[in-house]
Amino acid sequence: MNLENEILQIKNLNPGEKEFHQAIEEVLISIKPLLENCEKYKKNSIIQRITEPDRQIKFRVSWLDDQGNVQVNRGYRVQFNNALGPYKGGLRFHPSVNISVIKFLAFEQIFKNALTGLPIGGGKGGSDFNPKGKSNNEIMRFCQSFMTELCKHIGPERDVPAGDIGVGAREIGYLFGQYKRILNVHEGVLTGKGISYGGSLARKEATGYGLVYFTDSLLRKNGLNIKGKNVCISGAGNVAIYAAEKVQALGANVITMSDSTGWIYDSEGIDLNLIKKIKEVEKLRISEYKKLKPSAKYFEGKFLWSIPCEIALPCATQNEVTLECCENLVKNGTIALLEGANMPVCPEGVQLLKEKGILFIPGKAANAGGVSVSALEMSQNSLKLNWTFDQVDSKLKQIMEDILENILITCKEYNLKEDYVAGANILGFKRVADSIIEQGVI
Ligand code: NDP
Ligand code: 2IT
Questions:
Q1: Predicted TM-score of the model (pTM)
Q2: 103 flagged as catalytic
Q3: What is the spatial distance between Cα 244 and Cα 231, in angstroms, rounded to a whole number?
Q4: Which residues' Cβ are closer than 6 Å to ligand 1?
Q5: CATH of domain 3-186
Q6: CB-based contact 327:355 (threshold 8 Å)
Q7: What is the third-level CATH fold of 205-361?
Q8: Which pLDDT score is estimated for 37?
Q9: Domain regions of the chain by residue span
Q10: What whole-number distance in Å separates Cα of residue 104 and Cα of residue 123?
């Protein structure tokens, strides 16, 4: 069967799962140069085995709201592939969550985790629960109910969840507490934990910092420098905030940020203390920024990447960067786009950026810093040791540099020129596929 027919067959097996189809297509088409020369993958039905999750867990989550009414949500955990290590990947709480979204994220996570070189397999989970407008007690009751079922399926050597959209330190704390209460074991079953009970320093910063370390290395490899560059960022959550912090630390200017309601443009450079106060502490809308800093501009609605910048770092959600956004970036002379979010650029947009010679790095490489430090948190938990911020941060930097270096080597080996999407996918796929084969028919 040729590759196009195999992709069609996978789509038919998973009807209506559009985000999952998108991720499957992106990965499989790009690894053609690998598949063409590898008979053993065909013989071992690697494509069928790698695109079928080990298991998909779906469960009801009932919880009591502050008025005493019973609310019902859906919970998911997709344990996609554990060839390289225990399933590892975040939990997302957002009303848009469905099986397609969780499967796309879990599938991407397999290859991202392989790129880190650390012993972790791929998984993802979450719920269509909307944390917006919920009280602290409601969040706690939801997390407790969610974990009451999830705890049957996870464990430090089995599956180790972490945060993602809508799941930060507060939620991880409540989830961890409930796990401990039910199993009566204090162990590294989640990452992104509070520092006082087994969390790692620099995990909070890791995805954003890692993204910018990668950006800095990429520019240097191309004879450029991040210093003084204008950087547009989308999102104003965990990834966006710490990407902005590192961009500023390296002497570049962050001029935009956004949330699901609108976006801000601050030509003087975003005041990150204001953003942290609005988004991390008070959990308000980004429009508050203009009230506190009237010289900035606020626009309601979707961010269209219409402000000229040299570097673009989308850090909100999947498919946020449309073809129109990419046309704006091309028109404005952007040099590089690195995905802080998972799959934020739509396929037509990726195509255009590549055609126009814009340096494009997919999320599975550029945002791998978060899961890398999660794996370092697992190591610290196993060793019952805590490393310093600088120890973790320097390991993170090294991991990001190694990922870039190995992608460049792969691009050379397969004659891919500047197609970093193919380079990252081939490198990650090969590591996982070869391990699957070595472990026999299971
Ligand atoms: P957060 O919940 O902390 O922040 C998400 C941000 O994106 C918020 O500003 C949110 O706006 C915005 N957003 C969410 N959904 C939409 C939407 N549909 N349209 C527009 N804006 C939206 O999540 P993270 O920062 O952790 O995650 C951001 C991205 O990075 C996701 O793609 C995630 O999968 C990816 N990622 C996260 C990692 C991590 O360690 N946290 C690691 C690697 C990747 P609002 O405030 O209005 O909700
Ligand atoms: O998409 C991701 O890599 C994450 N949300 C982080 C996963 C993790 O296990 O830290």
A1: 0.98
A2: no
A3: 9
A4: 163-166, 207, 235-240, 259-261, 315-317, 320, 340-342, 367, 370
A5: 3.40.50.10860
A6: no
A7: Rossmann fold (3.40.50)
A8: 81
A9: 3-186, 205-361
A10: 10
